Amino acid sequence: MSSQTIRELYEHHEGKTSDKWSLYLDEYDKIFAPYRYRSVRFLEIGVQNGGSLDIWGHYFSQAEKIIGCDIDARCAQLQYDDPRIVVIVGDANSDDCEQKILAQAPGFEIIIDDGSHRSSDIGRSFVRYFRHLKDGGVYIVEDLHAS
User: Fold this and answer.
1) pTM score of the predicted model
2) Rounded to whole angstroms, how far apart are CA atoms 111 and 139?
3) Which is catalytic among the residues 58, 117, 132, 145?
4) Taking 60 as the threshold, does the pLDDT of residue 50 lie above it?
5) Are 22 and 7 in contact (CB under 8 A)?
6) Are the C-beta atoms of residues 66 and 50 closer than 8 Å to each other?
7) For residue 131, how many C-alpha atoms fall within 13 Å in the half-sphere facing its CB?
8) Which residues neighbour 44 within 8 Å (Cβ) at sequence distance 6 or greater?
9) Between residues 61 and 143, which one has the greater pLDDT?
10) Among 53, 89, 95, 107, which has the minimal tally of Cβ within 10 Å of its Cβ?
11) Could you report the per-residue pLDDT of 75-118, keeping only the tens digit for each?
């Protein structure tokens, strides 16, 4: 089990690119501390180059499932050695994509929306996925300044 902070994992990460705002990293350590060594199910909407999924896999060493969803078809090429990590390619706000996500995990302890950053999409994603958040779970929307 890794005891590195999220910041340390980001700073030492090699391979697939991930670009989170550095001010998020220390806050994520605080927010995610109660979940870190639990069998969580994790969904990230918007994975771009896929590096964040690698990092979440290291941080949440006991996670049951880590699912990334991205509308960019190039994300279908992302490969992971960690069998807990799955990438769904499609519009997270479509019924088809939601069904594919829920086929991987029926509910989540953590959901991060780092998708389009458009207010209309953020609202639709929240309405669609918040109901799949477990009691006591965390739903985070990144980069609201961009919407």
Assistant:
1) 0.89
2) 5
3) 117
4) yes
5) yes
6) no
7) 6
8) 52, 53, 56, 66, 67, 68, 69, 111, 112, 114
9) 61
10) 95
11) 999 999 999 999 999 999 999 999 999 999 999 999 999 887 77
End-to-end CA distance of the chain: give it in Å, rounded. 37
- Residue pair 82/57 in contact (Cβ under 8 Å)? The answer is yes
Residue 32 pLDDT > 60: yes
Positive/negative CA dihedral, 31, 137, 42, 72 = negative
Gap between the Cα atoms of 39 and 10, Å rounded: 22
Record the tokens describing residue 44, joined without a space. Answer: 């990230």
Q: How far apart are CA 13 and CA 6, in angstroms?
A: 10
Active site residue 117: yes
Amino acid at 94: S
